[in-house]
TrEMBL record:
InterPro entries: AAA+_ATPase, ABC_transporter-like_ATP-bd, ABC_transporter-like_CS, ABC_transporter_ATP-binding, DrrA1/2-like_C, P-loop_NTPase. Residues 16-249 form the ABC transporter domain. It holds the Pfam family ABC_tran. The lineage of its organism: Archaea, Thermoproteota, Thermoprotei, Thermofilales, Thermofilaceae. This is ABC transporter domain-containing protein. PROSITE patterns: ABC_TRANSPORTER_1, ABC_TRANSPORTER_2. One of its GO terms (molecular function) is ATP hydrolysis activity. Keywords: ATP-binding, Nucleotide-binding, Transport.
Amino acid sequence: MYPVEVQGLKKTYITRKRVGLFKTVESRIEALKGVSFNVNEGEILGILGPNGAGKSTLVKILATLLLPDEGSAKILGYDVVKERGKVRKHIGISLSVEKGFFYKLTARENLKYFGMLYGLSGKKLEERVNEALKAVGLQNQAEKFYEEMSLGMKARLSIARALLLDPPVLILDEPTLGLDPVTSRRIRHLLVNLAHQKRKSILLTTHNLFEAELICDRVAIISEGRILAIDTIDELKKRVADTVFIEVRLPSMSGLQALNILKDFPSNEVKIYHRKGIAEKIVISVPVSQAEETMEKLLHEFRASRLKVRSISILEPSLEDVFVKLTGQRGV
Ligand SMILES: Nc1ncnc2c1ncn2[C@@H]1O[C@H](COP(=O)(O)OP(=O)(O)OP(=O)(O)O)[C@@H](O)[C@H]1O
């Protein structure tokens, strides 16, 4: 059993729009068209997709806030439709930074309030509130009123609330949206620690490919209600990368000599880009199958011509390359 098991999940929104005085037209939006995946223990699974891909719909269903039309989703074996109460005891949810907190209560009071709602009381409640505050680094700001808190503090408080029951599964919708780089980094560090040290299973959505690349053990790329690919980032890159780039850095003024050497390079699939500057850079694109061999040949040719090379390396494709290739969209 996986901590999170999703099988053939479908959801269609039906909306009615008034046309004229008495007539309404129905419009159907298939937000999820049969989504299946699992999340392992101690794993961060990132859900990536362009706007309207179905990420929030998926997250809301897992958080028991929305009913699916078909398929099933289980958290620790409990069905999100038939066993909502049990599911809620085992998940921590952070859907939107701003929602649900009381502006006139302090961070601690807010957490206490939610702790009580979740069934905690007495010493246990105090303990869990303190632990949650500490986990997100808010122990020194616990007496600050919510309305006085910065966006970063609010984001951390939202994660603290998700941690109140010390749940094995966390579901987070864009946990670092709108946060400055330092706070984002702090939250990323916290999430990696929760997954890898505390063995929590984390499902998060993000528009930030850089972040996904940094912290997700696997990512699912979702578009128009379907998962286009789900795998580790390395595997996804391998799958889409038919071309890699070899970057050669040279001392200034030696670019032309290098280009001259490359003139007779034995492959017409090799493309060369040259950037002049203090340190000159030559980037050679080659089919992935020829990358290693090309690199060796390059080194050999440069050495034979006594050309000094500062560095030579193979540039990996980025997660953005994967995303663009799979969804046909640049950025998310
Ligand atoms: N309550 C609703 N009623 C009707 N249509 C909806 C509703 N919620 C979402 N949709 C539609 O369902 C599709 C999926 O939306 P969803 O919010 O799940 O996407 P998303 O991937 O979270 O997008 P974003 O990245 O913009 O948050 C979209 O076409 C959206 O317009």
